[in-house]
Amino acid sequence: xxxxxxxxxxxxxxxxxxxxxxxxxxxxxxxxxxxxxxxxxxxxxxxxxxxxxxxxxxxxxxxxxxxxxxxxxxxxxxxxxxxxxxxxxxxxxxxxxxxxxxxxxxxxxxxxxxxxxxxxxxxxxxxxxxxxxxxxxxxxxxxxxxxxxxxxxxxxxxxxxxxxxxxxxxxxxxxxxxxxxxxxxxxxxxxxxxxxxxxxxxxxxxxxxxxxxxxxxxxxxxxxxxxxxxxxxxxxxxxxxxxxxxxxxxxxxxxxxxxxxxxxxxxxxxxxxxxxxxxxxxxxxxxxxxxxxxxxxxxxxxxxxxxxxxxxxxxxxxxxxxxxxxxxxxxxxxxxxxxxxxxxxxxxxxxxxxxxxxxxxxxxxxxxxxxxxxxxxxxxxxxxxxxxxxxxxxxxxxxxxxxxxxxxxxxxxxxxxxxxxxxxxxxxxxxxxxxxxxxxxxxxxxxxxxxxxxxxxxxxxxxxxxxxxxxxxxxxxxxxxxxxxxxxxxxxxxxxxxxxxxxxxxxxxxxxxxxxxxxx
Length: 520
Prior knowledge:
Elements: E1 5-10, H1 16-25, E2 29-34, H2 39-44, E3 49-52, E4 78-81, H3 83-91, E5 95-98, E6 106-114, E7 127-134, E8 136-140, E9 146-151, E10 158-161, E11 166-169, H4 181-192, H5 201-216, E12 220-225, H6 229-242, E13 246-252, H7 260-271, E14 275-280, H8 282-289, H9 295-314, E15 321-324, H10 329-334, E16 339-340, E17 343-344, E18 367-368, H11 376-385, H12 390-393, H13 413-433, E19 441-445, E20 450-455, E21 458-471, E22 479-480, H14 485-498, E23 502-507
Parallel strand pairs: 1-2, 1-3, 3-4, 4-11, 12-13, 12-15, 13-14, 15-18, 21-23
Antiparallel strand pairs: 5-8, 6-7, 6-9, 9-10, 10-11, 16-17, 19-21, 20-21, 21-22
Helix pairs in contact: 5-6, 5-11, 6-11, 13-14
């Protein structure tokens, strides 16, 4: 089934896939294409709208990304965001220069005033907060464009040529920090591009299952299953597509949360039409991690060993089958795999457990990643549509390396036990008081710090445990959760009383950025 299509043209910014996600939230199908995509290729896709993304460059620099000016002759509406806005101005005869003073350079939350007669701002209040991130300035706007938004410091926050359907905004409407940002994107889609909204998650499932069946045929599929939301939904899609041709291998590396391995096994042996194999190898992982303290090295060891165990288990089945995993787009971004013209568009923040290379001696027919372009909330929506139980679909996110990235420093069996018990208390308390529904993710961290304490009449020198809890829409940015003090007090009291070798509990109040959600 063909859908209305909006193209997100990627110029290398960090929020590019987030723009696509916001468009899909408006029930409009979109595809992200690199700025190197030939114009004829874009034209052949018959898009009804095009969005230029942000990017780290400056449009007046010779080596900055540009695009064929003939794109503005297609008769298709164009929305430029940040760098994309400046590119429109630069290409169509305006002038973009480095900001000469702080008044034209804006970052972060900025009060912005809108011309609500402009289609882009239809139905909105006349002012709101927008998220700025630009050091360049449109000194001159192109002929035919009007100024349709301003801030206290900058007169040209947004431009519009309504006759031709060209719009540009200096801020980022795709991030949650921008009030009314989703409404702006919806206005572009429905008021300017005249979309009908024919893209639904049911359509994604239908088309993905059909594509999987066509690609896999009568071959086998081997999925490395962690038991988290992503791999579970990937398993659900593959099970619907090929049934018993799918084998899920669950490598229990001993770094799971308390009793989680048993939960995963029970769930997948009763829910899906597939083959399920559990491999218990906790001692093997501890031996490989002995003495290792560097977080990147730990991640790589866990990732490499995970797949060594996995591949040893299924080596004889690989020759005539496919390898599948539950990679989602944030994994690719933070591993530096979001690419523009073959170059990583973001720096490597951390290596993800499911982004390791396949050994040359493993001869799968190919790799299948049915969720590779979806964000976490989209993955959950797919899971619900597939009929996967709510409890599993809405489980807390859990990293592939498990507790290995929540134990700072060397990993030992004793530390795993302490962290499992502390984390179980936190999750149990949140479930009891019902506060877990207010949190996107919460967990405990063992930072490898001992502190002095007093228990009874005795001096102790034991573990400090950190509680980490965040709220977020997309995990690209996140805010620390304002858990009520009385709940934190109950959690702290239970951990220090019920978990051996813990005498202090602290709370992490750092947002992302500058921190990441996980500590390693």
